[in-house]
Amino acid sequence: MMENWENKHIVFFDGDCGVCNFWVQWILERDKKDQFMFASLQSDFGQKFLSERGLETNVFNTMYLWKPGRYYQIKSRAVLEIANLLGGVYKLSFVGKIIPSFLSDKVYDIISSNRMKLANQKCYLPDPHQRKKFIQV
User: Going edge to edge, which strands form the sheet with 134-136?
Assistant: First the structure.
């Protein structure tokens, strides 16, 4: 069952990545305002998002944050915006926006290129409430 995802922020992630799945779980646990939904880049929904924007459809090392009809952000800017939207202490992440994206994306790329070594490939199983927040995995 799909909630009304058009009014949410959608996080696209690598469904085969342990680090990515860890961060999805981390966001889920802190999404008190119920503003995020999730889809893997490998899913039909993720592939449609990528191809409609002329983005690589077979490269999954980038996280995207999409607000339908408004904007999408990639890599470090997506991470900073997610933290900002979570609010509370995470709003302090706005300080990171003073770092030029080419530098913060460089750090993102280093972590991304080593992500398979950083986490095991265990499968995350969301509870029934969290499962509603996934468009496709």
Answer: 71-74, 64-67, 9-13, 36-40, 134-136
